[in-house]
Amino acid sequence: MKILITNDDGIDSPGLKVLATEMTSVGWVYIVAPQSPQSAGSHATTLHKPLRAERYPLGLGEKDSFRTSGSPADCVVLGLDVLIKEEIDLVVSGINAGPNLGDDVIYSGTVAGAREGALNNKLSFAFSVNSFFNPDFSYASVFAAFFSKLVADKGLPNSVYFNVNLPNIPKEGIKGYKYAKLSRRRYSNRVMVGKDPFGKDFFWIGGKLVDSLEDRTDSKAVEDGFISITPLLFDQTNYKQLAEIEHIKFDLP
Ligand code: MN
């Protein structure tokens, strides 16, 4: 199995390094990751300026490693199309420091890395740990290697990609896993307003999470100490609405 690893926290982040190390037990590991952090950069794709990539060996047992000036999605495109000469079987993104739960998947660069893999018909995974500040990747990396191999061996359709979040607790504290739907993630006080040193207003988007923790959601699973596993699709068609709207007929104005 040939595995492409990317992330959105940058190639020097510890989450990528432990993931790459563990994935060497699953197959050949190739790393193509951003040279700088790209969190919340979503599926940004660089079209209007050139990208750069340079070999950047991490010494983790990987077959090859590159850092690029692009986004996670750019990295997957470059990896699949030009940088890696082998045919990739699996794209794994992460391990992210911080959760990518519910609506976060829209903003997440980590999830976008996996989505780009899925768009290229590669079985793909995004892994995140539920702490920005003291993430413990030790069990998350073991689980990531185990679960991606498990799914790859089952041969599920490649258009499905998986978003996986782990609670930030040691293995002994983890209660199990749950297949879960995405939650609604809302943030209060989303924009902080301040004054810069020149007296002009600045705005800082962030906010405090107000999560409703509905049953069967990924957020609830992780909050309760379970690993959440959510299969995602990139087809954003609202099929229910499509069926409902079809009876509305109109003449063009
Ligand atoms: Mn990140």
Features:
253 residues; 9-stranded mixed β-sheet; 7 helices; 13 strands; binds manganese (II) ion
Structure description:
The chain has helices spanning 14-23, 72-83, 104-107, 109-119, 137-154, 218-223, 239-245; strands spanning 2-6, 28-34, 53-55, 64-68, 90-97, 123-129, 161-166, 176-179, 185-188, 191-195, 201-205, 208-211, 226-232. It is of the alpha/beta class. The strands form 3 sheets. Strands 3-4-2-1-5-6-7-13-8 form a 9-stranded mixed β-sheet, with helices on both faces. It has a two-stranded antiparallel ribbon with strand order 9-12. The longest helix has 18 residues, at 137-154. The relative contact order is 0.15. The mean pLDDT is 95. Manganese (II) ion (MN) binds at residues 8-9, 39, 96, 98, 110.
Question: What is shown here, in short?
Answer:
With 253 residues, this protein is an alpha/beta fold. The protein has seven helices and 13 strands.
Write the layout of secondary structure elements.
Blueprint: E1 2-6, H1 14-23, E2 28-34, E3 53-55, E4 64-68, H2 72-83, E5 90-97, H3 104-107, H4 109-119, E6 123-129, H5 137-154, E7 161-166, E8 176-179, E9 185-188, E10 191-195, E11 201-205, E12 208-211, H6 218-223, E13 226-232, H7 239-245
Parallel strand pairs: 1-2, 1-5, 2-4, 5-6, 6-7, 8-13
Antiparallel strand pairs: 3-4, 7-13, 9-12, 10-11
Helix pairs in contact: 1-5, 2-4
Residues 8-9, 39, 96, 98, 110 line the site of manganese (II) ion.
Bound molecule kinds, no repeats:
manganese (II) ion
Total of DSSP H or I helical runs spanning 4+ residues? 7
Q: Tell me the total number of β-strands.
A: 13
**Which structural category do the helix and sheet elements fall into?**
alpha/beta
> Whole-number radius of gyration?
19 Å
